[in-house]
Records
---
Amino acid sequence: MNKEKLNKIIKIISKNTNINEKLISVDSCMNDFPKWDSLAQVRIMIELEKKYKTKINTSKMSDLISVLKILNFLDNNK
Amino acid sequence: MLFYTLPYLAFFLPITLAIFFYVNLLKVDRKLLLIFLSLIFYAWWNVYYLPIIIFSILINYYFYKKIIIEKQNKKKLLILGIFLNILILVVFKYTDFIIENINTFFLTNISYLNLPFPLGISFFTFQSIAFLINVYDEEILDVKTKEFFLFIVFFPQLIAGPIVKYKHMIPQFNDKKNYIFNSTNFNIGLIVLLIGLIKKIYFADTLGEFVDNGYNNINQLNLISSWLVSLSFTFQFYFDFTGYVDMATGSALMLNIVLPQNFNSPFKSLSVIDFWQRWHITLTQFLNNFIYNPILRSLKNINFFNSMIVTIIVFFIAGLWHGPSWNFVLFGLFHGVGLVINHTYKLFFNFKIPKLFAWFLTFNFVNISFIFFRSEEISNSINLIEKMFFLDEKTSEKLSLLKNEYLNQFLNDNNLVFCFILSVAVCFFFNNAYQLLDKRMDNSNSIKKNL
């Protein structure tokens, strides 16, 4: 697992949800935090698209609801 | 053809299963066979609907072909494809509603067109739109005509959903293992079908008679009987819809096809957000993936206020999708506002409230919203709500709560009282069909994971 990428993802989630970075781990998912809602999800996805210069389809957005899923998606879409 | 009718249960389903699993003797393509049988199923109700669905399929397949080869005008083609789908839906479902409103607002006298209202048009339109967007996003690349045809017309999900995804269905149709009779799937499918049948013909139909009487005579209801009527409809609606979906799921499973779960004990929800994650799940996913997310991401400022505006727009559309009436629009808006309040509470207040109180608030919110769904006129909805909250009663009537024709009708019908009590127990305390099956199935069974 790419630690640097993981930390960056956690930073992006934290920034868009106002959840303390320390509370987010590789096992975290949307359902763990009330603040990680559908609005935050769209913001996270847009920031990930900019940061990693990738395209996340609108239907894919609803699938990427955990740190691990995001990590796997970015690994598979290099 | 409807799932709970004799032609379906006694003839169509057994014959379909028998031909499907033993057609290898005749060397007929199973997908073509399912398409043919699904078209018979669809045309059974009214053969004149058949050209409409076939036209819709051909149009969408044409757009798939165009989008897949086009490089520069892909987006324009997608927009045109979506527009045509919506146009077909509007023409057949909403023309008279539009005429009615023009007549009301502009005092005109335009005659109604009384066009046929093809069964399942709302479902196959949404499914086709989702398909085109997936093609545009290059999530779907290689589509054969018969596979797309089957994706739309597959009879278990054709009339009342669930709204299925192309990528979820086609691998199952292509899997040769699914062409072999599987006794486990057959038995589980049969149980789910029977659960659905009981929900429909016992629960929904028993409650339905009392509900129809009550809604036709709202002025004669009092406080208690108005609550009984509204609650009875809430349970009737749940059993009717989930019963139909269970019968669809069971029928598909007998053919080794797994449909996505569409309900997950929605009346156990602890918030409106929770409710929409449990009620008509595939519709919620469609709204989220193909309306909410695209609108929100197209905005310059993606903030809380804008996301709440988008939520209201999405639920306005969802309400109208349910039917051509302002009552459905109000139903959608009621939920949209409920979600805005729920999100606002979650973001700004989020203090703990007892679970029982959260459930009580949510269930009553849903129960009241369903009044808009059931009433034919907005004035009837308001009238019933007034009755439920003592807003319409004279002082003398307030004192005679137990003297009411409809209350007596309810209390004197033992079957109805038993059905009502059982409905409460099933909706609030029992596991749902999927949870029951989950417990009984082997961990290694892939169907379990999909269910």
---
Amino acid sequence: MINPARPDNGGNIVLRSEGVWKSYDDGAITVLRGVSLEVRQGQTIALCGPSGCGKSTLLHLFGGLDTPDRGRVAVNGIEINRHRNLLRLLRHEVGFVFQLHNLIPDLTLAENCLIPTVAAGIDRHVAQARLRQLAERTGLSHRLDQKIQKLSGGERQRTALCRALMNRPKILLADEPTGSLDEHTSATVFELLLDLAKTEGVTLLMATHDRSLAERCVRLLEMRDGRIHERLSA
Amino acid sequence: MIFLRLIWTNLSRHRIRSLISVAGIAFSVAAMLTVVTILQGAIGMFSGILSNDSEIIVFERNVSDLFFSNVPANAVAEIASWPMVLHANPVLFGIVSSAGHPIVTCFGVTPEDARIRKADWLQGDRLAFAQHADDVVLGERAAEFLDATLNSHVQIGHSTFHVIGILKTANGFEDGGVFLPLGSAQTFFHKEGTSSVITIKLRNKEDAAAFKSLVKQRYGSLIALEDQEFTRSYSQFKILKATAWAVGGCGLLLGGFGVANTMIMSVFTRIREIAILRVNGFSNVQLAAMIFGESAIVSFFGALVGLSIGTCFLFALKLVPALHGYVDTTLQPVVLLIVIVLALFTGVAGAFYPAVYAMRVRAVEALRFE
């Protein structure tokens, strides 16, 4: 089933998938069945659906972490199936936030956040300034030298958010970013996520089980049987 | 800085494992340094015997060992008479045995030989050498282990010799050797009328090429080589050197396996972390550099510790009285350099497979299933 995009929203198309199919175990499990989607710059979009419906897979495809069996995936108009494009994509175009924070436990908060800048070869002073800015925005300024083990769940997820935004990506791909947090912390982190996305001008594509959070996004996409069904959000 | 922190963090996370790898490289380096230095020293000493107050040696062509070389006496006489030659001294090498000492180096020399003329005679008179067929002069160390004094008699092989002198020399082989008059040595070794080599000193060093050419022209069965040429080309030296490097190389190979094992374990236990780095934009080159960096640090510290251990061991060897003069434990810069480079290369080579493995990690799978 081909799903329509939202052409009436203005802004450039930053994410596009055309007839994307993806299966695992040599085709035994098909998770995406011809998914087509267009996402415009600055939109906040929630992907909802039961476990295994293909939300994470679609995010991975947009982030260049996986390749489709069939169909095309493009970010900012550039197809990302080529390796050269992949590195640029991961360094400058997209940032990832996962359900598990995926931070390196032996490094400090600051060192974890600086990893993307090292990968991209960004000047140390520029990176430090950006870190201070994001740490302040996320309320982590006083924790910069702490090892990850000493941070709370919410702080870890905020750290992951900082890291994802360090290189000023245009797109933020968040895979159940509040899935491992309690209700209160979850709400706080989500507020921060939306706020940062708005102030940084980042397009947010977020997979979530939390319907109440999803409904606060501009677009709400329901995934079922490997296909996308769009619902109008509030 | 973060890159170095990542490398250091990975090593310090499993300190014992890293230290074992450092120890592996260290002992390999120490073994290689010790073996190579001792054998290089031995080769240097043997070369020193031949180059004692001479710059060219003449010996039988195509012999595998100088002990098997036979240079006829008439060649000695004729070569000595050539105008370009300042002196030509025949030397007969042999191995003799005495009670409790199965291998004693024996030098059959003439009174004109530098070993007799220029040595530091501790006892006896150099002018008395070769006055009688049963005369023998002992190196200081040989006198010690043969328990001989001036004018005593020592049993060498089946013969008894009269000790007419004890001399001191810096060369271990000579210091632990016995010196017989050339004629006596020829009789003793059943090599009448021959010597093993002729050591040549020219009036003018620039005549070396002409001298070698003349020897080739006059004596097809002999070959003349300058000392450095000889050291480079003598098959026994080649075998010794090759053995030393092979033994040392095997040690380093084992050290390299240690590093490989450490790095493989290190990579396998942090697949997720590698995936995180990849998601954050680390390229294959950056991942490989991180793995190689870790192994390079292990190798560097291993080499440093190994050099310290090896140097201490060589220093200790120098203090052993029984080895005095037999081993030249002077560290050669080129040997040091080669050992360090080999250690680093081995360590880095050991990280090759782990680095390739790390580069092949698929972030999406690692993050999904870890």
